[in-house]
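user: Kindly work through both lines:
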Amino acid sequence: MLRYLTAGESHGKSLAGIIEGLPAGLTVSREMIDRDLARRQEGYGRGGRMAIEKDHVEILSGIRGGITLGSPLAYLIHNRDYENWKEGMDPFEGDLAYKQVFHPRPGHADLPGALKYGFTDVRAVLERSSARETAVRVAAGSIARQLLSLFGIEAASHVVRIGSVMLNNDHKVTFDSLLSADTSPVRCINETTAQEMMKAIDQASAEGDSLGGVVEVRVKGIPVGLGSHVQWDRKLDARLAYALMSIQAIKGVEIGDGFQSAKKPGSQVHDEIFYDENHGFYRKTNHAGGIEGGISNGEEVIIRCVMKPIPTLMKSLKTVDMRSHLPYDAAKERSDTCAVPAAAVVAEGTALFVIAQAFMETFGHDSLEEMKRCWKPSK
């Protein structure tokens, strides 16, 4: 079973990840992982932390000579900012009174996390619940990308909406058009819309506020048959939604037409089925977003995620002091005005890892060579 775990705090020494279940014989490019990590750090509206961190992966185990061994792959992503926080974040010498936070932010894990684990200082919660953790997920997704690319599976992402500014529905979105998203400061494939998005971010920043939005991930080349209808936790769309909803600040996930399906009659929602000798079964539309009954149907998988505005605001919302229970202004941590472009990259990597898990369940073996011998995509 392909799986991964993450560890680390936002201002701790390092972030860490362990991936288990990769086949032996996969050539892994460290440069490709670093490239995806850099993509996550880009985007208009990011805060000062991104000027400090320049993420690079350090592989500790599971690879020799650039090739996976079949054993657990362990890796680190060091936090440069740790040097500025060592006094409070050192695992053994850290001062527990250092930069304490007693004023939980509305919309953050601060308060429920503190109540659950018995803290008064919510520093113990916010360090782990920070979106800094997503760097580990992007690295895992990058390795999944390198595995899936050998079988013709590719993913791309873009930003559909920031605040009230959204990509016009008349704009034709194709997988190839998403490849231009990396050149946009907001990962929007339409330059005019991108300029409007940046203006909205500037306005929110000037007002001490933050903005959320909608991102879209597309994955092409997925064969028929990943996932299953026979049990709830094997359904591919359910697994994607589960993983994507676990990303910090994601509040909604839809596949294909998603919530738009509620507005249409069935004749405009369900994709008619055709067949020819060259293509096998196929569809001329893709309202289902590539998944029917929890199983991939051979079409592009299309996923959209809603990201709420970041809960750290320069104009603080009202909260309560954890000690006195008296009214107070919420804590201010260094943060972004808008992290929607970064969320698109995180969602892309997260989706890739889920697809890789499902792919390994169907076609997986202990070695890459065995996988290649057994690889027979269905039509």
